From TrEMBL:
This is Probable S-methyl-5'-thioinosine phosphorylase. It is an enzyme of class 2 (transferase). Although this enzyme belongs to the family of MTA phosphorylases based on sequence homology, it has been shown that conserved amino acid substitutions in the substrate binding pocket convert the substrate specificity of this enzyme from 6-aminopurines to 6-oxopurines. It comes from Methanosarcina siciliae T4/M. Catalyzes the reversible phosphorylation of S-methyl-5'-thioinosine (MTI) to hypoxanthine and 5-methylthioribose-1-phosphate. Involved in the breakdown of S-methyl-5'-thioadenosine (MTA), a major by-product of polyamine biosynthesis. Catabolism of (MTA) occurs via deamination to MTI and phosphorolysis to hypoxanthine. Transmembrane segments: none annotated. SUPFAM superfamilies: Purine and uridine phosphorylases (SSF53167). The keyword Transferase applies. The lineage of its organism: Archaea, Methanobacteriati, Methanobacteriota, Stenosarchaea group, Methanomicrobia. Keywords: Glycosyltransferase, Purine salvage, Transferase.
Length: 258
């Protein structure tokens, strides 16, 4: 797919509670996978497209999000870099409200359209799933603000139910945080040779890590409170992303096609 115009340079895919697009110009985008709405704005002199992943009026559940339409849409706007926000449960005791810059993932999803390539075989490279340049920009922004953060591995579950205690015991052997929306989004971005990184907000301790019952309300409440700082972190990071891509993300599909 060739990009015809660069309407936006960077996209933000906003997770639960993301509301920083409210006053932006919205444009409907038709994709082969359905229609979505993008919101256009400018941050630090860069043209930005914001796509709220769950669509606020309906709140699309994680297993029904139209990941292919969202990634196709940002690509059709000319976007080369995607920053995603995700809420996660911690399997390492991270404080609620703290941030994790994702550096790898493990995929436990099972019912989602996870590729653009159903008619030919494309084994896209995900040895570095999250763009090192955007991750560096996110780390710069967090450090500049003196905000504590860690980097870590994301386990993506299918949902929409929360995980069991046994599942968390298993996943905590090899991942740090758990969520439901990061995959296949990151993979689809790779398939279109986009740079993609994620700023995850810890909204709760994962199941069995505390004696408290997990609720969806606490997830929304924590992200709601963190919303302003999430947007400020993203803004500073956007200002720090180099204009020209020097990472390897743009070559993700080289040698991938059979
Ligand atoms: Zn990159």
């Amino acid at each position: 797919m060739d990009t015809e115009a660069e309407i936006a340079e960077i996209a933000i895919l906003g997770g639960v509670g993301f509301n920083s697009h409210r006053d932006c110009e919205n444009i409907p985008i038709k994709t082969p996978f359905g229609r979505i709405t993008a919101y256009l704005t400018s941050i630090k002199g860069r043209n930005i497209a914001i796509i709220p992943r769950h669509v606020e009026e309906i709140h699309i559940p994680p297993h029904r999000v139209n990941y292919r339409a969202n990634i196709w849409a940002v690509h059709s706007l000319g976007v080369k870099r995607v920053i995603s926000t995700n809420s996660v449960g911690s399997m390492r005791g991270h404080p609620v409200g703290s941030f994790v810059v994702l550096d790898d993932f493990i995929d436990f999803t099972c019912s989602r359209f996870s590729t653009f390539y159903d008619d030919k075989t494309v084994h896209v490279d995900v040895s570095e799933p999250y763009c090192p340049e955007i991750r560096a920009a996110l780390r710069y922004s967090l450090e500049k603000k003196g905000i504590a953060y860690t980097e870590g591995v994301y386990a993506c579950t299918e949902g929409p139910r929360f995980e069991t205690r046994a599942e968390i015991r298993m996943m905590s052997q090899f991942a740090d945080v758990v969520g439901m929306t990061g995959v296949p989004e990151v993979v689809l971005a790779k398939e279109l040779s986009l740079c993609y990184a994620s700023l995850a907000t810890v909204t709760n301790q994962a199941c069995g890590m505390t004696t408290q019952k997990l609720t969806a309300e606490e997830v929304t409440e924590v992200v709601g409170k963190a919303q302003d700082s999430i947007f400020e972190i993203l803004s500073d990071a956007i200002g720090k992303i180099p204009e020209t891509r020097n990472c390897m993300c743009r070559f993700a599909k080289e040698g991938a096609c059979l």
